[in-house]
Amino acid sequence: MTCQEARAYLEAYLDRELPAKETLEVDAHLAFCMPCQWIHAKEREFRALLRTRLRREAAPETLAARIRQGIRRLERRSRWQPIWRGLRWAPLPLALAAGLLLAAHLADRREPAKPDPARALAAELVRKHVTYSQVEEPAEVASSDRLQLAGWFRDRVRFDVPVPDFSPSGIRLLGGRLSDLGDRPVAYLFYAKGRQLLSLYAFPRRELDLPRGGWTEVNGERYFLTQYQGHEVVLWGRGETLFALVSLLPPEELLDCAVTLSRLLART
Questions:
Q1: Helix, strand or coil, per DSSP, at residue 117
Q2: What three-state secondary structure class fits 193?
Q3: Residue 49 to residues 54, 175, 206, 211: CA-CA distances in angstroms?
Q4: Lower CB density within 10 Å: C or N end of the chain?
Q5: At what angle do helices 62-79 and 92-106 cross, to 10 degrees?
Q6: Helix (H, G, I), strand (E, B) or coil at 231
Q7: SS3 7
Q8: Residues 147-172 pLDDT 10s
Q9: 3-class secondary structure, 27
Q10: How far apart are alpha carbons 72 and 143 in whole angstroms?
Q11: Which of 41, 83, 89, 43 is nearest to 185 (CA)?
Q12: What are residue 114's phi and psi, to 5 degrees?
């Protein structure tokens, strides 16, 4: 995919309206192209600014009075027209719609709440997991050779990418690819247990805020467990690298995988 093609797809990519095939192609392009990464990151920042800074416009105070007057006129008119006598409450849907419109404008004039960074991150990871699960061959390198995959990532990213062995838990390695999270490169490993896909992500922390509470501690390591759209997500960090696991597997199985990876990292 060329830069021109990637930038033409960028709006739909950010709106998550691209088909899975084109999404993968844009992912692969953004993993290597610094100019397109910059454009992508600035567009995401602009959208985030709009969501957090813009306030909802309040309706004029006279609007409610005008709506009530209009409703009363319609009701009086319906009573004095015999042909519509059996439908004297026909204006009711209009009144209901007007009331809902007024409520939407006047209900909340407060600043919108800031998004939860951990939930936003989990949502993005789950969306990638779902997108790649719809593709027949999502991996750039389809291999069960852990050393081969570790070497492939070593040549492409500036952080260590461990490739754990989950086979004692019946989870087999399928391959890996590069992806992105905004301006962060992401090493993405694919595993499977039966027909369930398991996604393992590794990416730089870069001042990413994680929640202060709600962590689970196992063997001295802390893990944050959450859900998004029925998928289980486990987040944890080691040094300047963050890791995440996403799957439809039960949370205790996913946590066991995270603990296995932490043991591997402790030996390196």
A1: helix
A2: strand
A3: 8, 36, 19, 21
A4: C
A5: 180
A6: strand
A7: helix
A8: 999 999 998 888 889 999 999 989 99
A9: helix
A10: 72
A11: 41
A12: -70, 140
Cα radius of gyration (the chain): 26
Distance CA 162, CA 241 (A): 11
- The H-assigned helical ranges of the chain are 3-14, 20-32, 34-53, 62-79, 92-106, 117-133, 146-154, 251-267
The DSSP-derived string for 119-182 is: HHHHHHHHHHHHHHHTSSS--SEE---HHHHHHHHHTT-SS-------GGGT-EEEEEEEEEET
At 75 the pLDDT is 64
Per-residue pLDDT of the chain (268 residues; tens, 9 = 90+): 788 887 787 778 877 777 777 787 787 787 768 788 777 777 766 666 666 665 555 566 676 677 777 777 766 665 545 543 444 444 555 555 555 555 555 555 555 555 677 788 899 999 999 988 888 788 889 999 999 999 999 988 888 899 999 999 899 999 999 988 877 889 999 999 988 899 999 999 877 877 888 899 999 999 999 999 999 999 998 888 999 999 999 999 999 999 999 888 887 6
Q: How far is CA 66 from CA 97, 99, 101, in A?
A: 14, 12, 13
**Cα maximum dimension of the chain:** 88
Q: Environment class of residue 235 by beta-carbon count within 10 Å: exposed (0-12), middle (13-18) or buried (19+)?
A: buried
Q: Distance (Å, rounded) from C-alpha 168 to C-alpha 183?
A: 35
d(CA 77, CA 75): 5
Tokens of 231: 């998928």
Q: Which tokens go with 263?
A: 């043991």
